[in-house]
C-alpha cells in the first residue's frame, strides 16, 4: 500500500533550528518503520514559498544588498530593524545578498520593487532550501519529493481544488462568529468564502479567502492534499509541531470532502522543543535571528 509521509516542511525563510529536528527525526523514523512493514513509502517536503513571509525575507535581503553595494549603510539596517520595516534580521541573509551582488553587481540598486522582488525572493528561497537540505543530510535524512506551494498556485491547482469543493456543494458565503465568542479590537463581521468543514467533523467552518481576495494558507493546503491524493496516495501522514493542533480537524475535513471519504489523513503532533538560557525560557525566532541551528546540534 502506498503511503505519503510529509514532515519537516519548515518555511524556507532561514536555516533549520533545533525545534525542527524533532519533527524531522520523528517523521523519518516513522517512514522507515512503515517501509520495514511493507508499505510503499514516499517521503515528502512541502515548500511554503508562496506566502507573504518569503516576500518579507526578500525585502530584508534587498536592504542587505543595498548596503553591500554602498547605496545604504549599517545604520540604515538598524533603523529599519527598529522601525519594523524588515521582518527577518538574521545574519544568515548576508550570504544571499553577497551572492546577488557577485552575480549582478549594482544592477538592482535603483530598480523598482516590482522588478527586483521576484529575483531576490527566488534566490533567497533557493539558498535557504540548500541550507535546509545540508542540515537534513547531516542527520541522514533525505526526501523523495519536494513540492513547491508557489508552483501549485501558479499551475491553477488551488483554483481547481476549490472549484471541486464548490461543485460538491461544500463552499458558501457567510459570516463567522468572533474567535472563541469574544470580540477583539480588530475583529469585524464580514461576508467570507467559507468551507463547511463542520459537516466533516470540524469545530467551525473555515475561511478560504483573505480580505484582499487572495487564497488563505488553508486553501493552498487543501489543493496540496488533493494533489497527493491524485498522485495515488489515499493514505497520507503529516508530522506537525504541537502549535499546529488547530490544523488537524480542518485538514481531515477537507480531505474527506475532496475525496468522497476515499482519502485518509493522519496527523502526528510532536511536542515543541523548549530551551532555557540561565534558567529562563528562550524563544527561538528566525525573524529576530535568535535560534540554535540544527547544524550546530549535529
Describe this structure in words.
- The chain is α/β, with parallel strands linked by helices and 298 residues long.
- Helix content is 44%, strand content 16%.
- It is built from ten helices and ten strands.
- The protein has helices spanning 18-36, 52-68, 74-82, 94-104, 113-138, 149-154, 157-167, 217-230, 247-259, 294-297; strands at residues 2-6, 40-47, 145-148, 171-174, 192-195, 206-207, 235-241, 264-270, 275-277, 280-282.
- The protein has a five-stranded parallel beta sheet with strand order 3-2-1-7-8, sandwiched between helices.
- Helix 7 packs across helix 8 (217-230) and helix 8 packs across helix 9 (247-259).
- The radius of gyration is 21 Å and the shape is globular.
How helical, in percent, are the residues?
40-55%
Give the uncertain stretches in residue-range form. none
Q: Tell me about the largest β-sheet.
A: 5 strands, parallel
Total strand count, please?
Answer: 10
- How widely separated are the two ends? 34 Å
Placed side by side, the strands forming the largest sheet appear as 3-2-1-7-8
Structural class: alpha/beta
Number of helices: 10
Keywords for this structure?
298 residues; five-stranded parallel beta sheet; three-stranded antiparallel beta sheet; 44% helix; globular
Give the helix/strand layout:
Elements lengths: L1 E5 L11 H19 L3 E8 L4 H17 L5 H9 L11 H11 L8 H26 L6 E4 H6 L2 H11 L3 E4 L17 E4 L10 E2 L9 H14 L4 E7 L5 H13 L4 E7 L4 E3 L2 E3 L11 H4 L1
Parallel strand pairs: 1-2, 1-7, 2-3, 7-8
Antiparallel strand pairs: 4-5, 5-6, 9-10
Helix pairs in contact: 2-4, 2-5, 7-8, 8-9
